[in-house]
Amino acid sequence: MLIFDCDNADTTTVNDLLDFAENEVDFQDHDSLRAAALKLNALSNDASVVASFMSKSILDYFVKGELPTSGPQSMILGARERFYVRANIWLPLAGQSPFYKHEQRLYSYGSAHNHNFNFMTVSHFGPGYETDLYTVTASRLVGEIGEQTDLRFVGRHSFPRSRVMVYEEHNDVHVQHPPEAVSISINLMERRDTDIESDQYYFDVESGRISAIPEFAGVYRRASIVRLAAEVADAETFDLLEGLYRETSCRRIKEALVGSLITVGRREPEFARSILSAASRDSDPLVKAQAERAERSISSN
Amino acid sequence: MVDHGSGRRTLAVFSKLADRKSSLGYADFASLVGPLQDIVWGSDFVQNAINREIAKISEDPLYANPYWEAGSITLASNKAWSLRVGYYARESEYIYTCPCHMVVLALNGGSFDVDHYAVEQSVNFEVFEPGVRIGKRATHTYAFGNAMCVDSARDIIDLHPKGLVPVVKLTSVINQKLQWAFDRNTLSSYQAISANPDASDLVAMAKTLMAMGSSHSAEALAALYQHESHFVRWASIQAMSQVAPEQAVELLSHAVDGDRHPHVRAASSRVLARLQGGASC
Predict the structure, then answer these.
(1) Residue B4's pLDDT band (cuts 50, 70, 90)
(2) Phi, psi (5° rounding) for residue A265?
(3) Of B136, B128, B124, residue with least CA distance to B95
(4) Residue A35 forms contact with B (CB below 8 Å)
(5) B64 and A236 in contact by Cβ < 8 A?
(6) Alpha-carbon distance B80 to B150, whole Å?
(7) How far apart are CA B62 and CA B69, in angstroms?
(8) Which of A24, A68, A79, B60 could bridge to A84 as Cys pair (CB 3.0-4.6 Å)?
(9) CA gap A41, A185 in Å, rounded
């Protein structure tokens, strides 16, 4: 986690920021990140950038019937091949609302999570949320729910105007707390095709364990489709799934296929034998552990 | 008889039928049950669609489909209907009314139990009232040969899945303005949310524009007052009161008698009276 408190007063546009990011930004290079933080703050210095985009989006909605949003919290301001820019709205929570828990989940308040991509965020409007920062050595994780991690508390930070926070993929973990008043952040997000294969987790900060996986993340959505396929399969599907197990480099796909044996293993013994045979030799402990569970389940039923 | 066709042809025929029927009333929507059963339970349409998806994942390690959700995939859709295959495992804190008509077919020997409820008094689902009670009418188990049909105007269901049950679900366009939430213990209405997800996004935008207070957003906020959701219309009036107070008074004056929703009319009347009272002091 890097924090830059920017004091530049210049302004820029979403397009200019994206041009700069596509050509200049390298999340592994500290100098590059400092330059990008100043550029992101320059975009944020345009006080009307989000309000104007939002107003135009509303007017367009009544013509096209579509919003550039992904839920009530996020809207995409612009996108290119390697980066996109998004505005996030952070509404205070009404403590008495019957949908308090729902809104808490919607805005990811109170849940410790990492990300499977690099991004930087600047506080654009309002008091900003407070955030508890943690770090974890993601490369050491097997990726099982309940797994003990080396999650370490780094500190609580406020998010005043012009502060830019840079999150390192996988290793930085944060908990956002609802702001006291409406706040807006603007994010510069890195995107890569390979994000579909990398993990993201929720953590229990008390125990330091992985508490859940975000099902909306691409890697888990794809794995869930593979598992679903096994459960509604015909003979051709099982052939395809065996081939997929051999071909894929995605451990979550392998885990899903092995996991499907818990429900389909007994009625599809050949498929089960083939997948278990490969899984038991797999070098990934996540896949191996799932194979042991599936074997136990098949033999106990 | 099992149709071992490609599945695409079968889907094309069903889609044409659904295009004609699904934007109509519940009776027309329900007439799709037979054709849907034919393609789901009488053909290998679902398996073919899934097989094509698995083949694509095998061929391209980075393949991702925007129609994937967690545990479900949209097989076909248009503006008036959507056909998905996925797990039926939703259990929520409240019992909700359905925002759209729906037909659900269990797959592969799976089954799911559903409690069916109905409101115990005559209500207008467009105007939320707290404390309205629902009563249980029946509990059914749905499995192969027995499709569940839900009329959004009257059926209230509470699902009790036995694990993750794979199903095919046909849904109509959202045809209710609100989703009412009923407390599980008291079976009384507790709160309502907008049935249209766009409405939640637009309310959040209105709140944000209100907080930012930019007079440049007045045109957009005035446009929001045209929205079908009374949550959005009320959010537009509230935001306008911060951004362009004179226009807010115009909107309030119109809303007092002219708004379609009694809650907006009543709230506008209260606010306008307060403003006029303040002005006269």
Answers:
(1) very low
(2) -60, -40
(3) B136
(4) no
(5) no
(6) 16
(7) 16
(8) A79
(9) 11
Cβ-Cβ contacts under 8 Å for A56 (sequence gap 6 or more): B220
Sheet holding B68-69, edge to edge: B68-69, B72-78, B81-88, B165-172, B102-106, B148-150
Backbone dihedral angles phi then psi of residue B100, each to the nearest 5 degrees: -145, 160
Spatial contact of B76 and B83, defined as CB atoms under 8 Å apart: yes
A233/B47 touch (CB, cutoff 8 Å), yes or no: yes
Binary contact (A215, B54; C-beta < 8 A): no
Picking from B3, B54, B227 by the largest number of A CB atoms within 10 A of its own CB, the best residue to mutate is B54
pLDDT (mean) for B142-164: 92
Both structure tokens of A240: 């395809």
Closest Cα in chain A, distance from residue B220 (Å):
5
State ipTM: 0.91
Q: Is the pTM of this model over 0.80?
A: yes
Identify the residue among A50, A55, A69, A123 best suited for mutation to test binding to B, counting B beta carbons within 10 A and taking the highest: A55
Across the interface, whether the CB atoms of A244 and B219 are under 8 A apart is answered no
**Largest Cα–Cα distance in chain B?**
81
- Contact (CB, 8 A) for B178 and B129: no
Q: Are A153 and A135 a contacting pair, CB within 8 Å?
A: no
- Residues A134/A153, Cβ–Cβ less than 8 Å: yes
Q: Is A58 on the interface with B (CB under 8 A)?
A: yes
List of chain A residues with pLDDT < 70: 95-99, 301
